[in-house]
Amino acid sequence: QVQLVESGGGLVQAGGSLRLSCAASGRIYGTPTMGWFRQAPGKEREFVATITWSGVANYADSVKGRFTISRDNAKNTVYLQMNSLKPEDTAVYYCAAKWAGSFGFWGQGTRVTVSS
Questions:
Q1: What per-residue confidence (pLDDT) applies to 1?
Q2: For residue range 81-106, what is the model confidence (pLDDT) as tens digits?
Q3: What phi and psi, each to the nearest 5 degrees, are found at residue 109?
Q4: Does the CA dihedral 102-103-105-108 come out positive or negative?
Q5: Are strands 67-72 and 77-82 parallel, antiparallel or unpaired?
Q6: CA dist 7 to 22, 40, 42, Å?
Q7: How far is Cα 49 from Cα 70, in angstroms, rounded to an integer?
Q8: How far apart are the first and last CA of the chain?
Q9: Can you name the residues that pair with 106 across neighbouring β-strands?
Q10: Distance in angstroms (rounded) separating the CA atoms of residues 67 and 104
């Protein structure tokens, strides 16, 4: 099994920054694609960003230019640097991992609240 543990969430004012981390442990074979997703109150979970083993990143349009996903393969950790935060970024942020197909491993989530 693979365990994913997120950290770094919190309360921040609009325009501020936060850096989320996700540490993977357990039976990790190779280097999975990692992703960040979020779920706002009353809404469905949505894609935020993904990053492949080689560092190729993909972003949702809503966060392009503000968020940066990165990873440290030696530490089995993925990061999400969030700048210029907006109240609509308020959500629980989840880390996920996949080796093929869909994301099958998820963290417990970390809450981000952006005040106006």
A1: 85
A2: 999 999 999 999 999 999 888 999 99
A3: 95, 155
A4: negative
A5: antiparallel
A6: 6, 17, 23
A7: 10
A8: 40
A9: 96
A10: 23
